[in-house]
Amino acid sequence: MSTAASARNGTWRNWGGNVAARPAREVTPASVDELAAAVRKAAEDGLKVKAVGTGHSFTSIAATDGVLIRPQLLTGIRNIDRDAMTVTVEAGTPLKRLNVALAREGLSLTNMGDIMEQTVSGATSTGTHGTGRDSGSIAAQIRGLELVTADGSVLSCSEKENPEVFAAARIGLGALGIVTAITFAVEPIFLLTAREEPMSFDRVTSAFDELWAENEHFEFYWFPHTGSTNTKRNNRSAGPEKPVPQLQGWFEDEFLSNGVFQVAQWVGRAAPGTIPSIARISSKALSARTYTDIPYKVFTSPRRVRFVEMEYAVPREAVVETLRELRTMVERSALRVSFPVEVRTAPADDITLSTASGRDSAYIAVHMVKGTPYQAYFTAAERIFTAHEGRPHWGKVHTRDAEYFAGVYPRFGEFTALRDRLDPHRRFQNDYLRRVLGA
Fold this sequence. Notes:
Number of helices: 14
Mean pLDDT: 92
Structural class: alpha+beta
């Protein structure tokens, strides 16, 4: 069990270890018909239903005491349409397998997140995203989807077919039905040149608008207790391919970014007073490098150190002010933060409950290593994020409720009305959805 969530003695746990549930039963359907039958049977038995992917959400969005649907048999590519430049995949397909299969066909998604362990339906339903000036989240690349609704019927939607469902279900939170297949827009595979280099916090924040405008994909990591960041710029390239040499890649991505980083986290947990010194060393450990490779080898990287995360989307024009407030808060507090803060962007999209819905957004993610108390840090950070009308990532820790979301999502009522229509008896309800969408 390296990446997925675990189930022992009937208890399901998520990847971060902060959510557990005991479902009444688990079902692993081998077809859409079997899944629909499982939903109808749950209704007969008066049980709620939730589908779970690899458990990469830090919220209890997939937790249930009813029927837990595991989609691992619903995997693989159904169809590649080279005229429309789309690919249709089964909902349980891990992003990792999709990326490799597409590359073999000479195709790629336009943009992706920084890990690829999640299933396509889990990643899109919670709004997983990477960073991009012009290209949005994984869900923003969806051209069609199929879902099993509360009465066990199968509904297809796209811009032409059931467009009001399509507008919402691309990031549906598992509230509208169980996604069984997704059609993504793809393009011919291309090369990206990545340029990673250290930069001071002051420089990156004062030049943020230029760095964002000049690069197709810009992101950076700030190390709390230091004035240092690591920046990453990914831009399309005519080639030639120049991947990171294998030994260097192992040293930087596995040994330093995962191995040494894990040891540093252990030391920090045992002796929190050492964290500022460790942060200064960590921020200098990774040197500048440039490499050119196919998209998924540039966008994604292994994450073996387990953590808990909170991430908020703020209006892009507010990101620098928000970050400076976050830094001031950490400096003035007794907090010891051993994990870097990640900053990314996304253009506005038209998905009802997307964190980038209707506004250009920047994402600020705060992390704590698994097993350390994170509440004080996250609470203080959340206070700053919400003051800027931040929208929390649906799959990451937050304390917001339906009343708050009605204020920061102009189309919130549109989503809840659709849910009333598609799931009037709340077959897909759980405690998390009750809180974020209202009863």
